[in-house]
What we know:
The complex is a heterotrimer of chains A (about 240), B (about 190) and C (about 450).
Chain A: E1 2-5, H1 9-14, H2 16-28, E2 32-34, H3 44-48, H4 56-66, E3 71-74, H5 77-86, H6 94-102, E4 103-105, H7 106-113, E5 126-130, H8 133-138, H9 154-160, E6 166-168, H10 183-186, H11 188-204, E7 209-212, H12 215-227, E8 233-236, H13 237-241
Helix pairs in contact in A: 11-12
Chain B: H1 2-13, H2 34-44, E1 48-51, H3 58-65, E2 72-74, E3 100-104, E4 107-109, E5 114-118, H4 127-130, E6 133-138, E7 143-144, H5 147-153, E8 161-165, E9 170-171, E10 179-180, E11 187-192
Chain C: H1 4-11, H2 15-37, H3 42-58, H4 60-73, E1 77-81, H5 84-97, E2 102-105, H6 109-113, H7 116-122, E3 126-129, H8 132-139, H9 156-167, H10 176-193, E4 196-199, E5 203-205, E6 210-215, H11 219-226, E7 229-235, E8 239-240, H12 245-257, E9 265-269, E10 277-283, H13 287-292, H14 307-311, H15 315-318, H16 329-339, H17 356-360, H18 367-381, H19 386-399, H20 402-418, H21 421-424, H22 431-434, H23 445-451
Parallel strand pairs in C: 1-10, 2-3, 2-4, 4-7, 5-8, 7-10
Antiparallel strand pairs in C: 5-6, 6-9
Helix pairs in contact in C: 2-12, 3-12, 9-10, 16-18
Iron/sulfur cluster binds next to helix 14 of chain C.
Amino acid sequence: xxxxxxxxxxxxxxxxxxxxxxxxxxxxxxxxxxxxxxxxxxxxxxxxxxxxxxxxxxxxxxxxxxxxxxxxxxxxxxxxxxxxxxxxxxxxxxxxxxxxxxxxxxxxxxxxxxxxxxxxxxxxxxxxxxxxxxxxxxxxxxxxxxxxxxxxxxxxxxxxxxxxxxxxxxxxxxxxxxxxxxxxxxxxxxxxxxxxxxxxxxxxxxxxxxxxxxxxxxxxxxxxxxxxxxxxxxxxxxxxxxxxx
Amino acid sequence: xxxxxxxxxxxxxxxxxxxxxxxxxxxxxxxxxxxxxxxxxxxxxxxxxxxxxxxxxxxxxxxxxxxxxxxxxxxxxxxxxxxxxxxxxxxxxxxxxxxxxxxxxxxxxxxxxxxxxxxxxxxxxxxxxxxxxxxxxxxxxxxxxxxxxxxxxxxxxxxxxxxxxxxxxxxxxxxxxxxxxxxxxxxxxxxxx
Amino acid sequence: xxxxxxxxxxxxxxxxxxxxxxxxxxxxxxxxxxxxxxxxxxxxxxxxxxxxxxxxxxxxxxxxxxxxxxxxxxxxxxxxxxxxxxxxxxxxxxxxxxxxxxxxxxxxxxxxxxxxxxxxxxxxxxxxxxxxxxxxxxxxxxxxxxxxxxxxxxxxxxxxxxxxxxxxxxxxxxxxxxxxxxxxxxxxxxxxxxxxxxxxxxxxxxxxxxxxxxxxxxxxxxxxxxxxxxxxxxxxxxxxxxxxxxxxxxxxxxxxxxxxxxxxxxxxxxxxxxxxxxxxxxxxxxxxxxxxxxxxxxxxxxxxxxxxxxxxxxxxxxxxxxxxxxxxxxxxxxxxxxxxxxxxxxxxxxxxxxxxxxxxxxxxxxxxxxxxxxxxxxxxxxxxxxxxxxxxxxxxxxxxxxxxxxxxxxxxxxxxxxxxxxxxxxxxxxxxxxxxxxxxxxxxxxxxxxxxxxxx
Lengths: 245, 193, 456
Ligand code: SF4
């Protein structure tokens, strides 16, 4: 099984340690991981802003980079969702179809493809899971509160096996944090308010560390936490699953 | 002019025919206690409900519940409380000060506490709305589980005017505070026989 | 014309009010969840509703003709209006034919859309909205801020003051019971003296020529049965094929809207009462155009339950007026650009595309996907702010060129790390107004990977 590691642009530049944790974790699980150089971005920021056409170049590069691999795995639900959902703007060649089909968000890859949940991690903190919308409602990483389906959560399956962790439950289980890509700047007031409200929910429920499978949401929350000096940290789920404390 | 241009525009713009799904009612069947479910739901929508051992107790119960009702219309032969007559000459506005209406419900729906009534029961349509309080009499055997059954039960009626009524009139338009008694009847009491 | 973001920003100046608004609507969303949980096969019910509506849109002309024929044979008069102006004229004509000067009206978003009230008032007709929430906003001279809860933006204290002024009530600290009761008396009088009653239509049934109107207050029925003439106004999309389909829609509607298992009154009109008249006005007003847009036509399946508003994290925090449209919230944001793209061009961007709206929608409209699609169209057809456009165009160019991207990535990181704070957190920079930037680490992932030994 050849796995291509997809490190989204903002993780590459701003959160290399998330990329490192992802890679180390996959290697720990015995996966043959390759990191194609020359990656840029999946084009999501452009598409969500209404400039899908201008993203074609980025999408094309993505396909070129990853068409060789059996699986494409990345630590960001929204990017994977964009590939699956919005690469319909490209001509649907075999390569494009395969890339769309074989792209996986890290947690769903581990649980559904590798079939593992206990990764031997330990992390003795009170953790709140932020279920990012594109992962939850787009990739269906879990059941969502609006739908009357049976309950499941891919991330929780993994987190539950982490030694010492205490998973805190939230008052609003899966409300959006207000990041939304360029929404965070073009609708600044609402974006900030939504983020503050999400953070408050975690604080009210005794959370010490907010985690999630999408670091863009966490970046937004982190920006607010740091500005307001709140007693919370954010960590990508790969970092928790890769830690032995 | 409106009609032909609208229809023409629809013809030009509609997609190719998508078939109509069949309703698989089996997906909704549950083994529930119809009477208990119905009672619970009537209460949850703000109605009162009481099982009566025998219809003879009806008037006593009504008097207990509505001691101040003076102008009463009754459609039920078992009740002698009615003192307001409705004829073809009666105008809707004449019922302005009606205190109580006692009507027969055709059947009830367990899932939502609704009762079907139609103007075959009340010759003047404003009656169940304008009356200050409303009493409906329902046979226990006339309960169905959900709305899919309900529509089967009224499929062959004479279609004039009819309604599902579920609880007394209510509103939550002021800060989401539920207030019973908006523009229609202030209370609804159901007697199950 | 202010954008959604600007209006939202203004609304957010009063954070306590935002919290209050958010909680009120979230409470309704939670009631909806509980109600839906009690229905076995809820998701299947949504599938059915969505499927029935898809069929309706693909056969709409035939259903409308069938409906008209059946309605007419039951003694109902049917009128057709291509647009708002025709609709208003038809209504006015019926009023003059009946020498009517006093009209009571129950909730109808269509008549809001057509601006019927001001039109009739300009002709000297008194129009009274009889739904309590609608009466409140009518007295306040405001439009509804929500399609099911028109006065959700008003506190009880505000309503108290409003009623004192217009209905002569006593100060009550906003006692809902007292205020509702006073409104009841006030409206009772209006019902008894009305010449004509106007209602909307929740569902019109092709097979029978009948239609259904749902209310909780009983105001539609109070109006209709006390008047000689009933005018019901409906958009062409309100048609459903058969009466049995009401079983599907009535199970979904109230649960989705308010969490009730059904509305208090679901009135089925098939024939006018002896001596009375029923008129139905069937209105297009842009709907057939929306039908032509393949990506957006399913927005016409909407049954106006308001659930997408209650769940929308933006709507809850920006208020209905921030949308500046007859129908606010998620569904409004996909309908309104079809009516007037220029005016409503900011609405499809008033979303994080979280998808909660599509999940609650009882007819499964893919609202958030349509928002995404409108964005692609609007950036092409509407003039965009130069800065936004330039930035995004350049971004696209850079992301298509890995080498250039690598250089720029490094310089952005350099900027964030070493540029003085006042430069990074300037006024132009919306991110930094209330948020910190990420702390930049030494090196990016690319560099780390290159330096690592034994790479595969
Ligand atoms: S779009 Fe769906 S959820 Fe929103 S009002 Fe219409 S039917 Fe309800």
